[in-house]
């Protein structure tokens, strides 16, 4: 009808059983919510993201487990989203890359103006992966565990400025190949040696 704008209806999704499809087969396209319950899990061994949220204003909550494996020519992040979303992890997120063909991936990867809270665990296994990767003007609060392995991997990384990253949890590096993340309790402005977009696209060697 002329003069009336179309609005996207918000949807609320709950995954309370093990699934092997991105978003549990649901579409997240703005102002939606997705909860992975304690009894739920997303397990994707074939190069897909666990949760992929399109649009803005989504709320993603993981109480269960999300596990992904990046394979030939693709990245496979645990949770990936754009701008103005709220992401909470109190379960476990694990991602790894199959070299030499899988693209680098992240546990949680977002664009701008998101709020991320981690009280669970985020684990990446492979080189050039990041536990939590953000662009600009995000708020990250970690009271949980972020574990990375492999060269050139970070617990958190910001590709833009104006981020507030607060850590009272445990970034850990038990192996010599792992690198402890430096967290900032104030606005963090990071200048990267290589220009990397907020979605990881580096090939693992």
Keywords:
205 residues; mainly beta; 8-stranded mixed β-sheet; 7-stranded parallel β-sheet; globular; disordered N terminus
Extended strand count: 20
Q: Overall pLDDT, averaged?
A: 79
Distance between the termini: 54 Å
Helix content: under 10%
**What is the 3D form?**
globular
Proportion of residues in extended strands: 35-45%
* pLDDT < 50 runs, ≥5 residues: 1-7, 173-205
Class derived from helix and strand content = mainly beta
Rg, Å, rounded? 16 Å
- Tell me the strand order in the biggest sheet: 1-3-6-9-12-15-18-20
Order of helices and strands: EEEEEEEEEEEEEEEEEEEE
Number of helices: 0
Query: What number of structural domains do the residues give?
Result: 1
Explain what you see.
The chain has about 200 residues and is mostly beta strands. The chain has one domain. Helices cover about 0% and strands about 40% of the residues. The strands form 3 sheets. Strands 1-3-6-9-12-15-18-20 form an 8-stranded mixed β-sheet, with no helix packed on it. It starts with 11 loop residues before the first strand and ends in a 17-residue tail after the last strand.
Give the helix/strand layout:
Elements: E1 12-15, E2 18-19, E3 33-36, E4 41-44, E5 51-53, E6 59-62, E7 65-70, E8 79-81, E9 86-89, E10 92-97, E11 106-109, E12 115-118, E13 121-125, E14 130-134, E15 139-142, E16 145-149, E17 154-158, E18 163-167, E19 170-172, E20 187-188
Parallel strand pairs: 1-3, 2-4, 3-6, 4-7, 5-8, 6-9, 7-10, 8-11, 9-12, 10-13, 11-14, 12-15, 13-16, 14-17, 15-18, 16-19
Antiparallel strand pairs: 18-20
